[in-house]
Fold this protein.
Amino acid sequence: GGVACVVCGDLNSCPGSGTEALALGGRIAASHPEWAEGASFRNLASRSEREADFFSKLSQEEIAATRRAFAHLAGGDMGAGIEASAVQRAFSPGGGGGDAAAACLAEFAPEGPSIGYAQFFSLFKALKQSVFQVEPASFGGILVKLCDFILSMEPCRATPPPTEGGIELSHSLELRSACEGAEVTFCAGGKSDSVDVIFYDRGFSQAIPFPFFGKEELTREGGLPTQGFPSDHTSLVCDLLL
């Protein structure tokens, strides 16, 4: 017989992410929006910058709203470009994001007549980072108003931007998740996500996971670590049957 495969780790990626799609689906396309969303990571030069980026990055719901806003302006084509003037209008003082968005635009104004999704996403990310430093709880309301304003605008597709660095990746492993349903595996700094995984291939007949800890239990003392949980991550445990 063949060799059974198990993949375990903290992937810093939530359920439904491109990372999970690659692991469980065997492929991720060059056009997947996460290539554009991760483009700014290359500009982080230190561990402190990476940690600040992690804690102030957009949530899955916020990313979905940003994708919808861009897709509307681009006529449904995430790989297209949109007119920079439309973005400047949305982020102006009279736009949906108010003073916070206008201040963000002043610092990160788009260059050139059109922008792609990577630059569009970086504006939303920069907006959250600036708001996060002042009043973290207010970003949700700003984002809703900004996206509603954009969705009221006419589509403004422009010349497609240069390729934004995506490549197609694939593998031949047939992986399955041993721990589907784990609501939270990381909880610290006011942030909680399910980012840890155990994947196994068809060399195993069954996976029996140990019961997961719930979000309420993990956040009872504000976050991890605590006296009962010595790490900011919980352990995932399962029995794999050959």
